[in-house]
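Example 3.2
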Amino acid sequence: MCDFITVAFPKRFLDLFKISIPRGLVTEEISNPTIASNIPKEYIQAVITDGSCSCGLFFSQEDVEDAKADRALKDMEKIREKYQKMNWSNAKIERTLAEIAATQNKNAFSRPELETGFRQDIREAIAKFAEMNCSVYVIVHAYRGSIAEERFGVQGRKNIAASRLRNNEYILARDMLYVIR
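Structure, written as tokens:
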């Protein structure tokens, strides 16, 4: 199962869209029936990928929370191993881990966190494209099968100003159709 970011816009802007995508990413025209039924008839669809899929280019709130929990668990295991190598008793290790867990919200693990939504360069590219050309429809779906054939439920439609997308002021979710203006 892989995420794919699909962007829809009038066909006449396809070449402009392709050159607006950040370096290192690929765009390919597709036609998914679910998306087609939710966008204007004159719009085409294109996916933005890293060459294979869009995993790592978009993170939902759930993804970010899972990553934080996974990171905290891995950090705790590293600390446990460190103290075991120092021959600390299990009781002392557990007390220390409990103290760390209690202070975790106070930056015990101060690493950069994932942001919800699109990667910053993708947000900027989509916002700029929408501001310069036309309204853009964007949806992210985790496909189980063919991106050209899979049908899925669209959870709704929301309008977002390009400036709000650019500044990541909006928490984005999978299967929600966003209209960027």
